[in-house]
Every structure is written in C-alpha cells, then in structure tokens.
C-alpha cells in the first residue's frame, strides 16, 4: 500500500518549487507566490482522476473525517453507524463531533454488512460511516439503497482505498461525502494530509470554510473575507500538497504494481483448500493494497500467523489480536477516555461501550489474516513468500 516506497526526485522537486517561493500557505498572497498553488493543483488532479466535483485537501485523514462530519451537518447527539473493524480515527471523529458512534456488524467483505446496518438504525441515526478497509469495498448498491431509504448520510471513509472503484465509480464518491488519507503509510502520501470528496456544493462550501476558521475564500484579501460559519484549522500546507502532487502522478503505476503483486500471491494461495478469500463485490476495483483471507477457525488462523512469522514473511496482520484496527482491543474507546470531559458524557442514554457485542464480526475477524502488498518487491521477494506458503498451508 505505501506510496513512500517509491519516493524519488519528483517529490523533492515539487517541494523545492514551494520553497523557492518561500511561501507555504495554501490561500491568498497571489503576488508573492509566482503562480505556485500546490494544494489547488492536487485538488484538481484528484477531481479529474476520481471523477468527483470537489476535493478539498486538509491536514490529515482524521481532519478530513472531522470536516466531512461537520460539513454534512452531522453533530451533537446524532447517531453514526460505524464498523468495529476500522481505524480509531473513525470513532474519534464522531465522538469529537459530539455525535454517538453505534457499532454494527461486518460481513466477509470486511466492511459493514447491509443487515448489520439495518439492525441498528434508530430515529436518531443520522449517518453511516462506511469504512472501505484494506483497499476494497462492501456491497455498495445495497448500502446506498438502505441509506436512501432511511434518509441517512453515507460518509465513505476511503482512507485506505485511494484509487479503488466500485462498478467504475471511485470509492469515496458514492455517498454524499467521502474522505482520503495521505499519511506516511497510505497508498498516496503527502507526509501528512487528507481530502474531503463531494459532489454536493453545500457540503463542499462547508468543508473549505470549516477547515479554515470559517473563511468564505471569496476575493483576494484574506483579511477582508467573510466568515459565514465557525470552524477550526485543518489546513494542509503547500509543502505537504507538493509531495502529493508528485505522488498522485504515480497512482496508476502504484495500482498496477499492487494488482500484479497481489495476483501472484493470491494465485499461489488459491491452491490451498483451507484458505478462502475476502469477498470483493467488484474485484476489478480493488486497489490491492492488501490480500485478506480466511482460515477455517481462530485456532488455525493463529497457528498460520505464527508459522508465517517463523518463515520470516513480513507484513502479516492478524487484526483480531492487535490493537490497531479492532474495537475489541480498544479499552480506551470502550471506556470513552479523553483527557477532559467529552460531549457524549452529557448524553444520558448513550450506549455503554464496554457492553458492545459484535459476535458475527468476531467470528469473521478471528479467522482473518491480511498481508500488506508492497511496491518494492522483486520477483525473488514474491517467490520467497510463495515458497513460505508451501511450508505453512494445507492442500
Ligand atoms: C489512516 C486512516 C484514517 C486517518 O488518516 P490519518 O491521515 O492518519 O489521520 C482514517 N480512517 C482509516 C480507515 C485509516 O486507515
């Protein structure tokens, strides 16, 4: 998945163009910047590639989620449906917005299941935070239909799925609003950065204003701009955007390499009858940043993880047992621990997160292993993995 693996002269050259002007702010000061507008340039590139009307860059994927929630009108007391298999930022952004995370079950797509979503909808449900984990999608037609039927906002977290598509539509552009992350280990890296995607004018205007203290960005004099709303500062710097400009030009190459490398491993693993694969509702649209597969049960999955370690295969993730991506292991979130009192503590009938149970997700995640697909693998690196598989898996 990581674009940093193919950093070269082009990222340095892009940063140099910014530093030669000595100007790192993304807005205004037209006279000083000699026509260098890296954030704007990257936003244009994202819109073109992903076929979306608006892409608004911010300082991180987490900032993109926070901005997307606010911009789409999701706030205090609103229930937002989230998966238990995700990154902590999904939950953090909802809690910091004063909204209420509601956990629902995933299916073998490793994303929220249509039935799981239906089961937790209440009159307070405002949105679904649909997370496209590990580069791929869920059953998007059904998900979209449920959201439309219940008048819910579909927020697509495509932070791990840059460049992925579903039936030709870019992930992150199917719902009313979507997010990308460009942190250090994502498909495209800005060092740190993120983007809000939308085809909706109101959401876009809210997003650019909210992420910059409510500035309306009208005219050429920042000091004279209006402030229709309050906001905060989630701006990206021109230096980070510059790295992204160089990286974005490599997206096609990154996807090609990932898809080729993933296919080699998946073909090899297909020979083993005990292995089955993550369900991909549109396999062609997978960004191929990870290969995720299932073993028959938890015991066997844990044995395989251990054996792959002994065979010195790096980049093997057992999410059910690590504290990065699965709710079961997040005691700080179960206990809603912040440094100060959180808005959710004012909601008397909030869920008790220590009591949240997602047995179907547990059953799936306890059998799931993911392998990171790297860009830098040589033929020998791929062969080493395939040889290791022969020592680990049962025919
Ligand atoms: C990385 C990630 C984020 C947050 O992105 P940052 O840029 O690291 O803040 C949010 N959601 C998911 C699913 C992610 O993988």
How are the SSEs placed, and which strands pair?
Elements: H1 9-21, H2 38-50, E1 54-58, H3 61-71, E2 79-82, H4 88-96, E3 100-103, H5 114-120, E4 125-131, H6 140-149, E5 153-157, E6 165-166, E7 169-170, E8 177-181, E9 194-198, H7 201-210, H8 238-248, H9 251-269, E10 276-277, E11 290-294, H10 298-310, E12 316-317, H11 331-334, H12 359-365, E13 368-372, H13 379-392
Parallel strand pairs: 2-3, 2-4, 4-5, 5-8
Antiparallel strand pairs: 1-9, 6-7, 8-9, 10-11, 11-13, 12-13
The structure holds pyridoxal-5'-phosphate.
Pyridoxal-5'-phosphate binds next to α3 and α4.
Q: What's the count of strands? A: 13
Radius of gyration (Å): 21 Å
Label the overall shape: globular
Q: Which stretches of 5+ consecutive residues score pLDDT under 50?
A: none
| Average pLDDT for all residues | 96
What is the CATH superfamily of the largest domain? Answer: Type I PLP-dependent aspartate aminotransferase-like (Major domain)
The chain-level structural class is: alpha/beta
Report on this model:
It is a single chain. It contains 13 helices and 13 strands. With 395 residues, the protein is α/β, with parallel strands linked by helices. The protein has two domains: 3-250, Aspartate Aminotransferase, domain 2 (3-Layer(aba) Sandwich), CATH 3.40.640.10; 252-394, Aspartate Aminotransferase, domain 1, CATH 3.90.1150. The chain has a seven-stranded mixed sheet, with helices on both faces. A four-stranded antiparallel sheet has the order 10-11-13-12. The longest helix is centred in the middle third of the chain and has 19 residues, at 251-269. The model has no long low-confidence stretch (mean pLDDT 96).
């Amino acid at each position: 998945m990581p674009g940093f693996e193919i950093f070269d002269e082009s990222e340095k050259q892009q940063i140099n163009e910014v530093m030669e002007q000595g100007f790192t702010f993304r807005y205004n000061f037209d006279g000083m910047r000699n026509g260098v507008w890296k954030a704007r340039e990257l936003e244009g590139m994202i819109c073109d590639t992903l076929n979306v009307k608006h892409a608004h860059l911010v300082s991180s994927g987490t900032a993109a989620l926070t901005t997307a929630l606010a911009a789409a009108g999701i706030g205090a007391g609103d229930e937002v449906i989230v998966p238990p298999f995700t990154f902590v930022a999904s939950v953090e952004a909802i809690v910091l917005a004063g909204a209420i995370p509601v956990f629902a079950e995933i299916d073998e797509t490793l994303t929220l299941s249509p039935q799981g979503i239906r089961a937790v909808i209440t009159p307070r449900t405002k949105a679904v935070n649909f997370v496209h984990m590990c580069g791929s999608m869920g059953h998007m037609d059904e998900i979209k239909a449920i959201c439309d039927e219940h008048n819910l906002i579909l927020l697509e977290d495509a932070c791990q799925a840059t460049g992925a598509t579903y039936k030709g539509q870019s992930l992150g552009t199917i719902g009313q609003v979507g997010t990308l992350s460009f942190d250090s280990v994502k498909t495209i890296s800005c060092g740190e950065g993120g983007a809000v995607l939308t085809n909706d004018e109101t959401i876009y205007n809210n997003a650019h204003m909210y992420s910059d203290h409510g500035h309306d960005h009208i005219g050429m004099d920042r000091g004279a701009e209006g402030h229709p709303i309050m906001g905060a500062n989630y701006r990206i710097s021109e230096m980070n955007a510059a790295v992204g400009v160089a990286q974005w030009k490599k997206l096609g190459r990154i996807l090609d390499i990932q898809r080729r490398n993933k296919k080699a491993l998946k073909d090899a693993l297909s020979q083993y009858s005990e292995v089955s694969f993550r369900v991909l509702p549109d396999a062609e649209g997978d960004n191929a940043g990870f290969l995720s597969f299932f073993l028959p049960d938890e015991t066997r999955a844990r044995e395989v993880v251990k054996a792959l370690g002994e065979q010195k295969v790096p980049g093997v993730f057992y999410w059910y047992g690590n504290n990065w991506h699965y709710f079961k292991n997040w005691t700080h979130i179960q206990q809603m621990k912040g440094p100060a009192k959180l808005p959710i503590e004012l909601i008397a009938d909030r869920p008790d997160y220590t009591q949240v149970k997602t047995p179907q997700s547990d059953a799936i995640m306890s059998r799931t292993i993911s392998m990171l697909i790297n860009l830098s693998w040589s033929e020998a690196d791929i062969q080493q993995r395939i040889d290791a598989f022969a020592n680990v898996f049962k025919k």
